[in-house]
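Practice set, problem 2.
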Amino acid sequence: MSHRIVIVGGGAGGLELATRLGRTLGKRGKAQVTLVDANLTHIWKPLLHEVAAGSLNSSEDELNYVAQAKWNHFEFQLGRLSGLDRASKRIQLAATLDEQGRELVPARTLGYDSLVIAIGSTTNDFGTVGAAQNCIFLDTREQAERFHRQLLNHYLRAHAGQQSDEQISVAIVGAGATGVELAAELHHAAHELAAYGLNRIQPQNMRITLIEAGPRVLPALPERISGPVHRTLEKLGVRVMTGAAVSEVMADGLKTAAGEHIPASLKVWAAGIRAPALLKNLDGLESNRINQLLVRPTLQTTLDDDIFAFGDCAACPLGDGSERNVPPRAQAAHQQASLLAKAFALRLEGKPLPEYRYQDYGSLISLSRFSAIGNLMGNLMGSVKLEGWLARMFYISLYRMHQMALYGRFRTVLLMLSDRLGRSTEPRLKLH
């Protein structure tokens, strides 16, 4: 029987790893590769802010796991991880229910020889009073679509009314990449909605407030990047509040630690991450305070050589002599997936596994059609700051690189052509 590799989590990293292993080990019969995910389709998580604003139609950019498995010589299993038995080397999958609550796929177990956990992260509301009840998070496609429906409903109600000075207020907690990009995308959406005739709410009457507890926007990036982004957002009419921690979220708005009330009919929480609670003490595996599994530089968990973890759900040492871990970024998950694809080929041959070293190639922030800014880093060119059209092209190329890893060059080129043609026949904004 060939070596059984089970990958739990079909996000960017897990799906890329399953595809790579299927094309190599699976196609040659050297391993049986199985991908497990609770959904039937995949969408690149960095695009969820565009889904929320309506700039991206998720049904057109989604990837079907069943089809991807057929094309790339791996197996797909629908299910959500619910437990682990390391002694018998089996994982437990919870039952999957349909829209009516009826059992679609029963609970079951799945055996493995090597297990890879790549279930990503969720937003961390830090226990803030009312956040879970009154905010929308952008962890999944369903949440992003829910926000878009609520936004569109505000415009439709206003369009059916008699007043011409309607307003809508949006509060975004967290000025990291997601919060900043969502704020700019919503400003763009306001102009597009008005252009399509839903103009009882004028663009200047969409009041967007971006709230950050830290001293500046994009706290994880250099100040030479965050400064211009802050100024651009203010030019767009976004109210940017830094040094403002949110202490409570109510149905009609937010309250800061300083006591200020910020009215908001739509509220998004985009501050902080944590791994799913399931990983905390998962059959004795070590985890940290935000539930990430502790792994060694080989990406093997500290207590079990047969279990690997990577991406946002893993705490991997940065390897620079500090106590810091690899940052939870898409480029880290991509690098780790590439390393594991090589590592499993070596593992099956009984050879030592390579160790992961994070390479920071810079960051790019999209401000919708208005601008983009970021820095690219490399051994030859050092750190280069990019702005405007060139930065926007590099930002778009990140998604195309993700598509290329999944589809190959030829199909990615066809997708690019399809996207270009679709722009001339479809609305610029999703209006349903």
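Problem 2, part (b): a different protein.
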Amino acid sequence: MDKLKFGIVGLGSIAKNHAEVITSLDGAELVSCYHKNSDKAAGFASLYGAKGYSDLDSFLSSGLDVLVITTPSAIRCEYAIPAMRRGINVLVEKPIDTDPSRAMEMIRESEKSGVKFGVIFQNRFSPLNEEIRKAVEKGRLGKRILSSCYVKWFRSQEYYDSGAWRGTKEIDGGGCLINQAIHGLDLLLSLSSPLDKVFSFSALRDHVRIDVEDTIVASLKFSDGSIGGFEASTASYPGCNRRIELTGSAGTIVAEDDHLISWSFKDMDDRDDEIIRKFASSSVNSASSPAVSNDNHRKEYEDFIQAIRDDRKPLIDGYEGLKSLNAVAAIYKSTKEGRAVTL
């Protein structure tokens, strides 16, 4: 079967992870890259045997099957829509956008054009999170009580100074919530009933020259009546592992990144000892660096490629990507207006 031809627009640090994944897959080929700066486009492309373009029309005419968008969040729509109208499938980095209305515009265009549209939330594909999802779907927690997530990371001032768009409301869409912690929020939402209401506070505690939050907390109320909390920061030195806590009337699951802290149910089954042995590990603070592993990205790419082959929706399509953005928008609205916000 012919390889799908991929192109990348947005050649910042995360684009390297995507390029490495694409070139490692049997069913994919990186053929082109785009940047307004022709030297940057050519230099990045040369690392992966691709061709660099500084003219967008020529880039989109380079025979692409899939466009991967890793640009700053607020400008993804301007690349996605033209690509979709040419019949090109689109895969965007998180968040899907900074504005839910633009996200819906992309979703509707993908449906109109008959192309696949996916959003990168690779943490859903980790082996431990897949086991957690199975347990939740089987109802092993019983009646849901609390569902909470904590993303207390550290990003230096140099991190924010490294790009003019970082830490800006206009282009980045916000601070630690929409940029870093949205991965944890997406994971929490995917393991819970639909989010019903939020009440939140935010602060800028330890960074300068940015106009967004570096710390935020939110109380959450879900449609099944359960409640929870969400805490995020990029000012918490030296940084802690992302922590998910799910409790119910019949069990509790606690995980830090891909390490299992608690896996306990009223009715334990034959696989539980195996899961505990495989994933239980002491927690190590390792969240001070923005380094990203490619393993889960690769799994999401494999699903997206198979979705194209099978003519089905990818597991994380535009609507899935919209859920966390709607939650982010509600949390930001709550911090601004000082009241509870219903989704």
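Answer key, part (b): The chain has a mean pLDDT of 95. The longest strand covers residues 144-152.
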